[in-house]
Write a structure and sequence with these properties.
This protein is mostly helical. The chain contains eleven helices and no strands. Helix 2 (40-52) crosses helix 3 (58-70), helix 2 packs antiparallel against helix 8 (140-149) and helix 7 (124-134) crosses helix 8.
């Protein structure tokens, strides 16, 4: 890695962070409040959002969640009602089925809510492992995204292809794998965490900063 090239990229990133720092801090405070208040509906909304995000635009996925909330079907495992809310979300039939499974397991009529389970686990790393092992459709990326959005995953990386392209551009990683194993995910996450520490930007902020670099806005 060229030291001059690295310095230029880091300077650009730090200048961008100066522009978006307050907005990112506000969004992170919103996420922390979700867990602090144990807002069950919002937590469940974020879980469904993260089930929808693979290979789909985040804004479209959140709009689908909001449609479900507005129609009062967020906790109703009716496949035909859910599918009507997933317009423009890729792989909507598979995702609707996975949402139904999650609602059936953790929704309002179930014996145990997702919040109850998360409270029983010891730390965010343990929670992430449980999510990946127990909820179909959540890999490490989606589980990390979910935990960040409810205020529990501030030290995780959300390694979608967009983030990995930025990491590769910064020479933090060498390539974007076709399929990312757990071992490779942890390796790349550690490299991103080390880089975040080096430049003095929290890893959870760095994720949002990469998105702002592309879109000009802070979202989720």
């Amino acid at each position: 890695m060229s030291a001059i090239y690295c310095e230029q990229k880091i300077d650009e990133l730090r200048r961008l962070y100066d522009s978006f720092h307050k907005q990112i801090e506000q969004r992170m405070a919103e996420f922390r409040k979700v867990w602090e208040t144990q807002d069950e509906e919002r937590i469940f909304s974020e879980l469904i959002f993260c089930l929808l995000t693979p290979q789909s635009r985040a804004q479209l996925c959140w709009s689908a969640v909001e449609r479900m909330r507005n129609k009062n079907i967020l906790l109703c495992d009716n496949y035909s009602d859910i599918i009507k809310c997933l317009d423009k979300v890729r792989f909507k039939y598979t995702k609707a089925q996975r949402i139904c499974e999650v609602i059936s397991r953790f929704g309002k009529d179930s014996k145990c809510s997702i919040v109850d389970i998360l409270n029983r686990l010891n730390n965010p790393a343990e929670i992430r492992e449980w999510l990946v092992e127990n909820i179909k459709g959540l890999g490490y990326k989606e589980a990390s995204h979910f935990l960040r959005n409810i205020g529990l995953g501030q030290n995780f990386a959300i390694l979608d292809r967009h983030i990995m392209r930025n990491l590769m551009d910064l020479s933090i990683i060498e390539k974007i794998p076709q399929h990312i194993s757990k071992r490779r995910y942890m390796e790349y996450e550690n490299k991103m965490r080390e880089f975040a520490t080096f430049i003095g930007i929290p890893i959870s902020h760095l994720d949002m900063l990469f998105w702002a670099k592309q879109t000009g806005v802070i979202f989720k």
